[in-house]
Amino acid sequence: DVVGIFCFVSVVAALDFRYHHAEELEKYLKGVHAAYPSLTHLHSIGRSVEGRDLWVLVLGRFPTHHKIGIPEFKYVANMHGDETVGREILLHLIDFLVTSYRRDPVITRLLNNTRIHIMPTMNPDGFEATKVPDCYYTRGRYNKNGEDLNRNFPDAFESNNVSIQPETQAVMNWIKNETFVLSANLHGGALVASYTFDNGNSVTGSSKGYSQSPDDDVFIHLAKTYSFNHNSMYKGIGCDNRQTFPEGITNGYSWYQLEGGMQDYNYVWGQCFEITLELSCCKYPPESELEKFWKDNKAALIEYIKQVHLGVKGQVTDRNGNPIPNAIVEAKGRPHICPYRTNEHGEYFLLLLPGTYVINATVPGFQSMLKTVEIPDNTGNFSAVKHDFSFPEVFTRSIAPSCPKVPLYQELERTSAAVKPTLHILVLMTVML
Description:
Layout: H1 2-14, H2 22-35, E1 40-47, E2 53-59, E3 72-77, H3 85-100, H4 105-113, E4 115-119, H5 124-129, H6 166-177, E5 180-187, E6 190-195, H7 216-229, E7 249-251, H8 252-255, H9 262-269, E8 273-280, H10 290-306, E9 312-317, E10 328-331, E11 347-350, E12 355-362, E13 369-375, E14 385-386, E15 389-390, H11 408-418, H12 424-432
Parallel strand pairs: 3-4, 3-5, 5-8, 6-7, 9-14, 9-15
Antiparallel strand pairs: 1-2, 2-4, 6-8, 9-11, 10-12, 12-13
């Protein structure tokens, strides 16, 4: 079909290695969706302070809606308006994915088995406000209200009493409405993959200069996956002599303490593992360097998406095969402070490294079901191992109370200071209730 071919050519030709301002970015995304209507879905998840759309392009075999068994993945860039590399390489990632579908077997399988959400800019106002590009800092870092969006989320460790910005609220609603499993947010100003936690207290071991999550092993793997597939990040050479990152990764807290960050919010309240990717020493580099940045990151961006298929997934149903939403499903020995629950389809996704785990499914008020699961590395098969749980009872749909947006680890610290360590799980349940 001639029109389709013309559309395809014009979309590809339209994307060169330069910075795309709000109108051009919107035009590009609309052009991609017009050229690939069955592979993409374009929507705005909200608006910035100045009223610009927060565009998300969704790619996959079923782009418009969640499909049972297919995990949700996201990339978010340009959260700091003057950190610009991520914004442009995500446009090139979109271009690469749509033009490789049905031509490249790996990309075809990836898109058939994953729903990928790409948000090139979370802070369009900040980007537009950056009139004079600078390697180090401009006022465009912040949103129009002068707020740092990566200090603007609820914090699990302390009350940060921030005024939630429209951009932040839009992302929080988005996280709530999708079953995101894995994510990364793209920044600039360093070259490193940083992982949860960004904040901490004695419960997470921050006194030792490292704030450890229950899934620390998985986070290290995720950060290394990006770093070792990047052209140079794995070398661990910082942007100056004072800063080096062995293997190109760091625990967020070990690097510097950050309150109200997006990656911790995703992990605690969104049931989504997110890492922060610092992609360039210069925050707003010259356009002439953009092609090199794309080449340096291309393989890493793809390999990282594949990790959404780590671990185990499945459905929790009752005797009649009806899905049970809000059932708690977690691996023994790694309880989350906000227990990870099934979605409306009774689905769960747990990112776990290869090994043997006991998976515990609990419907509050009923007995737990335990299953020992052997997890291989299934990322190459583009599907986590599947294990379903079927409860013998019949359940009416119950709405579980959502996890309170309070500093949960602060509560846990207070309580655990007064009790023996063996009561840790009991304390966790008390905090939750």
